[in-house]
Design brief:
Elements: H1 2-8, H2 15-44, E1 55-59, E2 64-68, H3 87-98, H4 107-135, H5 142-171, H6 176-190, H7 199-227, H8 235-267, H9 281-292, H10 301-342
Antiparallel strand pairs: 1-2
Helix pairs in contact: 2-3, 2-4, 2-10, 4-5, 5-7, 7-8, 8-9, 8-10
Length: about 350
């Protein structure tokens, strides 16, 4: 076993194998939970509808995606929200009026960004957690919390410029030369930090979510493994732990999700509104409370739970299964090498 971990890493598998395991989970999760996010966005946007060319946030439960809606364009994958009375009514109206495929609106850009972002996030989390436990000697429930928060900050920071570039290319047909000129102009006017626009409110929501999620997930997984007397989590243990911890984190961070949606609407008005006039996260939160009361901060709770809980469950269970699969392959390979060396 010691030789396996020397070759494969602290967790018994290599970083490349961790990336492959997380990649498959990200693809499955995006396909399954996208309809729930379409409904959530429609419900959250009812009181503040999007207009042609405006940006908004699209999230599949794993990572954020900055997108541009093109209302009035038949080829657009985002359409203006109707008046929905609730979650099920939104599902029925969207499917009836726009067709079932509209529930998977925005899947291509989601896949383009979700897969690499999730690979960075999950691999970083595992590497940081193992580093803190094995090399730094730390042990305790706070380790997953710190590792999860740090991994999310890293993933958001790496992906943010890519999301902004993709948003520019979605806003209108751009050749690579034109896209390069747009980016160069933005950097010249506002500096390199303009490529990380929206980083702050994204971190405000996603870092607490990540910290809460991993803290509860590792705790639940450990308790269930102890209860059923198993050394590694089964698919059922990973799934139930992921769903429960995801639901808890989703409820506690929903106000920031609502604020983020509103803020993305304002970001879409950058061409006509100076950046300094953009509302801060806290000001938007105050405005929502004054207009709709505290319940306004929890608009879209049901579809968010219906999306995030299964997304977290599917993602982490498929990731754990993939890691277990590669770990067994590595152990078998080491046994064969050891067996061969004994007879050489």
């Amino acid at each position: 076993m010691a030789s396996t971990q020397t070759v494969a890493g602290l967790n018994g598998i290599t970083p490349i194998q961790q990336m492959i395991a997380s990649c498959s989970g990200a693809f499955m999760t995006s396909v399954i939970v996208t309809p729930f996010d379409v409904v959530k966005i429609r419900l959250q946007a009812q009181r503040t509808p999007f207009y042609k060319g405006k940006c908004f946030l699209y999230c599949n439960g794993l990572m954020d995606h900055l997108c541009v809606c093109e209302n009035g364009n038949a080829s657009a994958w985002y359409k203006a929200p109707g008046q929905f009375r609730g979650t099920m009514d939104a599902f029925i109206q969207i499917a009836r009026n726009e067709g079932l495929k509209s529930l998977w609106s925005g899947l291509p850009p989601t896949l383009i960004m979700a897969v690499p972002a999730t690979v960075i996030y999950f691999t970083s989390y595992d590497q940081l957690r193992n580093l803190m436990k094995s090399q730094m000697g730390y042990d305790g429930n706070y380790v997953p919390l710190i590792a999860g928060a740090s991994a999310r900050v890293g993933a958001v920071t790496v992906i943010s410029p890519l999301e902004l570039i993709r948003t520019k290319s979605q806003s209108r047909p751009l050749k690579y030369k034109e896209l390069r000129n747009v980016i160069r102009t933005a950097v010249a006017q506002e500096g390199w930090l303009s490529l990380w626009r929206g980083w702050g409110p994204t971190v405000l929501r996603d870092v607490p979510f990540s910290a809460i999620y991993w803290f509860n997930y590792e705790l639940m997984k450990k308790q269930l493994c102890k209860k059923y007397n198993v050394s590694e989590p089964t698919l059922t243990i990973s799934f139930s732990s992921g769903a429960s911890s995801g639901a808890i984190a989703a409820v506690l961070t929903l106000p920031f999700d609502v604020v983020k949606t509103r803020r993305q609407i304002e970001i879409g008005e950058l061409n006509t509104k100076p950046r300094k006039q953009l509302s801060s996260t806290w000001k938007i939160m105050e405005r929502i409370v004054s207009q709709s009361g505290f319940e306004g901060l929890f608009v879209g709770l049901l579809p968010r739970l219906m999306k995030v809980a299964p997304a977290c469950a599917i993602m982490v269970s498929s990731y754990e299964y993939g890691k277990s699969f590669f770990r067994k392959i590595n152990q078998e390979r080491e046994r064969k090498k050891s067996y061969s060396s004994d007879f050489s």
